[in-house]
Amino acid sequence: MDTQSVDELLDRGGDALPRRPGIPEPRREALWLLAAAWGRDTTWVRLHRETTVPGEVVRRYEDWLERRAAGVPAHHLTGVCPFWGRPFRVSPEVLIPRPETELLVERALALELPPRARVVDVGTGSGCLAVTLALERPGWRVAATDRSAAALWMARRNARALGAGARLVLTDLVAGLTGPVHLVAANLPYVPAQAMAELPVEVRHDPRGALDGGPDGLALVRRLLAGLPRLLSPAGVALLELGEGQAEAVAREAAPWGLKVAARIKDLGGCERIVELRPRTGRRESS
Ligand SMILES: C[S@@+](CC[C@H](N)C(=O)[O-])C[C@H]1O[C@@H](n2cnc3c(N)ncnc32)[C@H](O)[C@@H]1O
Questions:
Q1: Ordered domains of the chain (ranges, CATH)
Q2: Are 158 and 129 in contact (CB under 8 A)?
């Protein structure tokens, strides 16, 4: 009963998955799940449509289809999410890395920082930012914080598996860290509390503590801004990921802390997703 072809399974998967914003193309999603359940890539699976799929793969695929239809994100089923081309382990205790966060990486790698720059990733979750920056710039001295021990455990696991050296610190934002730091990268929770109930079903599987940014979404960002002046070097940079319509408020709130907006980077949807802040008195540094 378990011996079925790729084509049959994809047809069944396409029918089993409901089309909704989180699953815009059910058959494509089914293909992705079947490939992951089989440990193959999607192109290989597409090229083997008549092939009989092993029983244990069929059982895993069918279990995943059922849970996916119920709203469990695909990356929670597979336990892995790609970020900047590398596989990061994920669990329900960490935010699934989002493609838009790669914009922050892109900007960070374009900065002219000292070869041994000190970098802090605040609210590291899976470790995707800290690990990526440490691997892409091996000279940088990267630290990462989170207040969730479970998240730090996953970040440590990812750092080890991918061979990145990053110091992981269980703390509130940047408490206990000392400067000068050349780059602060932060994708902190920024969803306004009252919007939490309206999030798509998939997003509601992310930990609340990774999403809920308080009444206007900026409670944590605001607290981080207050910590930046003592931490950032005079030529330092802070890259903050934000939600829709928050960049203006952050620019306003950063000013009293002696920080100016040096750039606002839009994502593909036109949202000002990344804000780059620098000390107003900033100057170039060579080390
Ligand atoms: C939106 S997730 C981002 C995770 C990861 N940096 C990414 O981009 O995928 C926010 C992270 O901030 C952490 N966090 C929330 N409040 C914090 C705080 N007060 N201090 C440190 N980390 C915090 C959460 O536990 C979560 O891992």
A1: 4-70 (1.10.8), 91-279 (3.40.50.150)
A2: no
Residuewise pLDDT in 10s, the chain (287 residues): 556 999 999 999 999 999 988 899 999 999 999 999 999 999 999 999 999 999 999 999 999 999 999 989 999 999 999 999 999 999 999 999 999 999 999 999 999 999 999 999 999 999 999 999 999 999 999 999 999 999 999 999 999 999 999 999 999 999 999 989 999 999 999 999 999 988 888 888 888 999 999 999 999 999 999 999 999 999 999 999 999 999 999 999 999 999 999 999 999 999 999 999 999 975 444 43
Task: Please indicate whether residue 158, judged by its CB atom, sits closer than 6 Å to ligand 1.
Answer: no
103 CB under 6 A from ligand 1? no
d(CA 67, CA 31): 15
Atom of ligand 1 nearest to the CA of 148: 25
The alpha carbon of 60 and the centre of ligand 1 are apart by a number of angstroms equal to 31
Query: pTM (2 decimals)?
Result: 0.91
Beta carbons within 10 angstroms of residue 222's beta carbon: 18
For residue 180, is the peptide bond before it cis, meaning its omega torsion is within 30 degrees of 0?
Answer: yes
144 Cβ below 6 A of ligand 1: no
The continuous run of DSSP H or E covering 167 comes out as strand 166-170
Say if ligand 1 is within 6 A of residue 97 CB: yes
